[in-house]
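Folding follows sequence. Below is one example:
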Amino acid sequence: MMKQFHVGVAAEAFVAAQFARCGYDVSVQYGANQPEYDLVVVKGDKLMKVSVKGSQEGSWGLTQSFIKNADYHGAVDKWLEKHHKKTIFAFVQFKDVLLNEAPRLYLAFPADIADILKSSAKGRGETILYEKKVWSAKAVGYGTVDKIPDTWKFSPERIDEIFNLI
């Protein structure tokens, strides 16, 4: 297991490398506590700000600091207010990935992430974005599976789709 610091560094490096492999110019912000985004991705006159989130546990905690009185939807709304609608989130998953393999990567807009968080656990909502979560018999979401949409998978087509929406 990596320390969280190393997860963050590795995640950012993988995302930057994959965008570069797809022919994009990448600029990495330097220093701690960067505002809103970690990378800037450019092609021609189009620019995309990217916030990178890494994990080695199969999920990404996003809205825990906003939750009050078990109001999951309210926490998601507060989280969404903190992010520019055109900032792209890159999620990097190292769980069950061997050292000589690339991690799984996903790209999404904040509003799309909010929709997934709100629909999780049979619509109760969640503070955590799961790559894939099968809810157990004692859980509020029993009988459902929460999963990142396949359309979010990092690919040249996904990048083009996002650039066309910015």
